[in-house]
């Protein structure tokens, strides 16, 4: 018998339950993984609340690191004893031990700790596809990244600086402004008291930026469009303030023939080759020191309810890891 956080209904953090579960032997294409560290992401709160539906009753969480205990038939990607990490797949990373499709597991290379891998898989691979594939940022370009002191933001802004970009970041407080500046942002806008679009235009000499990365959603969407130069790309990849209100797509033409995309990591890592290449890129920039993953918050897995309260209450900065 082992333990896991389980959901029997969607709702507030109080619906999270620490329960005994039975984990059997891995079946066809599966591996059994004993977790050493579990990552926490804002999408977990969307799934818990019901904004993003998942099977209930069931598990929660999509990111972790651990050791392979056993593999089922026809598994060749990993073997017992391998240190592995993953992001995605069926919800259930909030657990001590679990069965998981082996094809989503990637080896953790030497020089990367389990805790780091658990904290960086989802956020790091998200940053990778955003700045290297959705819009391949080039040296000398100015870009706007919302929530620059968040988990994805801290990774992406360091990476963008290493690419030679001028990073403009938004944050919600002076404390977070200092953190963002220390992690790659050349310019930081405190959105609670500054007009973001106006400041972006001032910083760019009236030109605007070629791309905006926006995980905030409803509260920032329209002003983000005003930050773009003609033919610019709006990358909406989250809804921390709520879903974007439906709008007339004619706005895109009025504001300069803009482009809009709503990408997901799952699409960018559909094939095993894409998954391995994306993870390798993330681990490489960490080992090269271009991106430093700072785990600022550590909790026991049994305390997941408090983790969600702190996350939704904006009391966290950067990466969060839970220990089974």
TrEMBL record:
GO molecular function: mRNA 3'-UTR AU-rich region binding; NADPH binding; quinone reductase (NADPH) activity; zinc ion binding
CDD domains: QOR2
Keywords for the protein's UniProt record, in alphabetical order: NADP, Oxidoreductase
Pfam families (alphabetical): ADH_N (PF08240), ADH_zinc_N (PF00107)
Annotated PROSITE patterns: QOR_ZETA_CRYSTAL
Key word Lipid metabolism present: no
PANTHER family tied to this protein: QUINONE OXIDOREDUCTASE PIG3-RELATED, QUINONE OXIDOREDUCTASE-RELATED
Protein name: Quinone oxidoreductase
Source organism of the structure: Limnoglobus roseus
